[in-house]
Amino acid sequence: MVAGSGPRRRFSSARPAATSTDPKAFAAAVGEAVRRARQLRGWTQAQLAERSRLSSNYVARLERGELGPSLLVANQLCEALEIEVGSLLAPPAPPARSTRRRVAT
Question: Is the pLDDT of residue 72 over 90?
């Protein structure tokens, strides 16, 4: 069989929806997880940057999803935040539902 003689596949020029394999979606999800963990501790971005030995600008860009962390940087952030690296990949917990009832007037 001659190389390239198999059936040809057509590729769509349409952009795929954001998935877990989409680097931008991944960076945004990790950035949001870092922001949540930081805010739970009541820290500013500058405090997280100092504790993780990163620049404040880097932490801000990471939280905005402009860039994704390397494994080394993710480890530094997680050590500072005292969380597991895997928690950066976990989906956020759903917000707590209110148990208040509406009273009809």
Answer: yes
**Alpha-carbon dihedral angle through residues 19, 76, 82, 61, given to the nearest 10 degrees:** -50
* Confidence label for 89 from pLDDT (cuts 50, 70 and 90): confident
Those residues whose C-beta lies under 8 Å from the C-beta of residue 9, and which sit 6 or more positions away, are none
Domain 23-86 sits in CATH at 1.10.260.40
Range 85-89 average pLDDT: 90
Other CB atoms within 10 Å distance of the CB of residue 38: 22
Show me where the domains of the chain are located.
23-86
* pLDDT score of 84: 94
